[in-house]
Structure formats: structure tokens, C-alpha cells
Amino acid sequence: MVLLICQLVEGIFNPAIRFTDDEWRRIVDLDVSYQSEAVEGKVLRHLASIPKLVQQIKKLPTERHLVIMQAQSHLAAIYSLLKKTRNQLLRCEADEERPSDLAASMIHAAVMRAYGFCLAGALIMHRMIGCLDDNDAASAVESAVLVDESLQLAEKANSYIPFASAHMHFVLAAAYMNAITDG
Asked: What is the pLDDT of residues 33-65, one digit of tens each?
């Protein structure tokens, strides 16, 4: 599981790795297919459906290169921490002969889900900020799609979720941009 997630992330941030859209979709499907109802699985599948997302991220302007470097540094630190946690959990499970107690495995699974969800959140924020680029002709269309998708999600919402509501200022900015470019 850790290896698949790291491959997925490295495929996005490592310029030496070049995934096609189909390869990226296949990795996402392998990684989350067993959890089809998990929120992060749905988010990753949605991101995998965006054409050429991996290539778009790699073609960021040079002034954003620092952000990529920081992301790589943070991801390396997270991976190191996860590896250390995993090793501690494996030791704990090996020392304790408790076949009915899966607490350590459950903690590890929760950590991995949180890691995947954080990555998905970072990709979503990147996508939203890209929708607000007034130098890109396609961003007006993308902002309209973002607003439309957000309105569709809002209609279906039956509870307040802080993560979901945190992006509303981006949606409002995209709606404003869409309104002024309709001209």
C-alpha cells in the first residue's frame, strides 16, 4: 500500500517519472479499488479523470518550481515518518502474539488513508488555483466547470464537512472570474 501511494505521488512530483493518463488511472484504480466507498478513493478517481493532469502539474511555470521542491521535501519527510511508524507497528505486532487484536494494523491503515487524503487535498487545491489563472484561456472554462460541480455537490450535501467547505472561497472566485469573462 505504501509503495503504491509513493509511486502515485512520485509520478506527479518527480520529473524523471512520466506516466501517461492511462497509466496514472490504472495506478489510482489499483490503489483504491478495494475501498470504492472511501472518500479519498473517490477524490483520487475524480482527479485521475482530469485529462493530462500529471503533465499540467509538471509544466508549472518556473516561479512555482520552489513549491514543487517544498512538496517533494514534505513528501519525503512524510514517507520517512510513515516508514518509521510502520516498522514500529510491525515490531509491536510481532512481539505481541495477539491474533485477535488488530489495533496496530488499524492505526497503520488510518495513517495511510490520512496520507492519501492529504495528497488528494493538495491536488484539489492545485486544480482550483489553476482555474483562476487569467492568463490561460482554458481557465475560464475550467472555472465554470468547478462552479457547476460545486453547486451539484452542494445540492447533495446533507452534512457540514469542514474539508469540503474550505474550498468555497475558490469557488466564489471562480464564479466571479466566469461572470466577468462571459462579457
From this structure: 444 555 555 666 666 666 666 666 666 665 566
In this prediction the pTM is 0.33
Query: What is the per-residue burial (b if ≥16 Cβ within 10 Å, else e) of 10-39?
Result: ebbbeeeeebeeeebbebbeebbeeeeeee
CA atoms within 13 A on the CB side of 6: 12
Instruction: Note whether 12 and 54 are within 8 A (CB).
Output: yes
Distances in Å between the alpha carbon of 56 and those of 24, 61, 68, 146?
A: 13, 10, 13, 17
Residues 71, 109 within the same domain:
yes
Q: Based on the domain organization, do 64 and 125 belong to the same domain?
A: yes
Domain co-membership, 139 together with 122: no
